[in-house]
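Task 17 of the worksheet. Students: predict the tertiary structure of the chain below and write it out as structure tokens. Keep your answer in the requested format; marks are given for formatting as well as content.
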Amino acid sequence: MITIAIRAREIVSSNVDTLIGKAGDPRKMLRLLQSEIEETLIALHGDTAKARRQQDRLRDSATRLGAGAEEWTGKAKIALDHGREDLARAALLARESDRAKAASETRAAETLGEQIAEADAMIAALEAKRSALGQRIADLTQPSAGAPASTPGVRAIDQRIDRIDALERRAQFAATPAPENDDPAAIEHEIASLQQASAIEAELAAMKGGAAKAAPAKRAASKKRS
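Model answer:
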């Protein structure tokens, strides 16, 4: 979408008066620009539709991962009840991994939502520019065409397009693995992993404590039945 956004910016901010002054056939030049706007609109509509589909897929995936993640807690308890602490630990790690994936896809869906909103604003600006060009073409057919009015909101559209560029760069940066050396992000990630491991060990200990308390009650109940 970023390449189309750059071209859309150029079109929206183009100075029609300057183009007319340089053109040998102003009406032909304006029709060509109008045609380019239509092609850019088609591309933007296509990319926006793809982004919406991708956003829906990300949301569905995040929901499935979030639901599946919580099932790992019950599986860890079952493994611990059967004396498989290693398997219970692996289940809790899988739960945290699914939770992280769900959160990541939720953030990606939100970023796409911002890009879609900005693209919709850009589409509206291009359609306004196309309509204004149509009026200019009609004015050029008159003997005394009035002075053209500048297209409003160009600066606001530029800011929206700049935001799309920034969102694209942020999404690309988020998808790039962090270096391992002394990079603060890598250090923070490693510390977070240690904290996660500690939390899982504490949860396992709590599960084992609960299982230990339940064992005497089960034995007493069994003796009574016998």
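Marker's comment: The two ends are 74 Å apart (CA to CA). The domain at 2-176 is CATH 1.10.287 (Helix Hairpins).
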